Every structure is written in C-alpha cells, then in structure tokens.
Amino acid sequence: MAEEYNPDIVSVIDETGEEHIFEELDRIETDDARYVALLPVYDDAEDILDDDGEIIILKVEEEKNGDTYLCPIEDAKEFDEIQSIFEERLADLFEEEE
Predict the structure, then answer these.
(1) CA angle at residue 57 from 82 to 27, to 5 degrees?
(2) Is the pTM of this model over 0.90?
(3) What mean pLDDT do residues 26-47 have?
(4) What phi and psi, each to the nearest 5 degrees, are found at residue 55?
(5) How many other C-beta atoms lie within 10 A of the C-beta of residue 93?
(6) Three-state secondary structure string covering the chain
(7) What confidence tens digit (pLDDT) does each residue in 9-27 have?
(8) Which residue has the higher pLDDT, 74 or 50?
C-alpha cells in the first residue's frame, strides 16, 4: 500500500496582519541558525496558476520570550549558502521519489 502524504502546513502572519499558508518542504539547522524552505498553499485555483512555484527560504528566529518568527535572510552570502543546501537536499529528495 502506498504511503499516505501528509504535508506539514505552516501559518505565517505577516507584518500587516495578513495570514499566509505554506507547506514546509524542508528544514535545516546550522551551527549559527535554523532555516525553513516553504511553498505557498492556495485555496483558489487561479492563484495556483499565477504562482511562479518559487520556494521561499526563511530564517527561524526565537525571541527570549519564546516567540518564534520567520524572517527573510538579509545577507546575500548567507542566503546563497542556505539556498544551495536546500536545492541539493530537495533535489535528492525528489530524485528518490521518482
């Protein structure tokens, strides 16, 4: 019997208070930080067709009070390094499934 697919769904509230829904594709932890690779999830078929399919990579930051935030990676070098890691990991993952 085929294994059932249960995506990890993440709800993110942006700085304007708008909620965005993502599927968490992968997460990594380095010595310096944690990161997630997310794919937007849409309810509307037209939004799905308009999406460019680009994966969103964010840094996980925790406040001292325990709140967790997903933030853009501001440093270009850090972003390139993390993006490369995710690309390799996701390519290996999807290669195995085919």
Answers:
(1) 70
(2) no
(3) 87
(4) -80, 140
(5) 11
(6) CCCCCCCEEEEEECCCCCEEEEEEEEEEECCCCEEEEEEECCCCHHHHHHCCCCCEEEEEEECCCCCEEEECCCCHHHHHHHHHHHHHHHHHHHHHHC
(7) 888 888 899 998 899 999 9
(8) 74
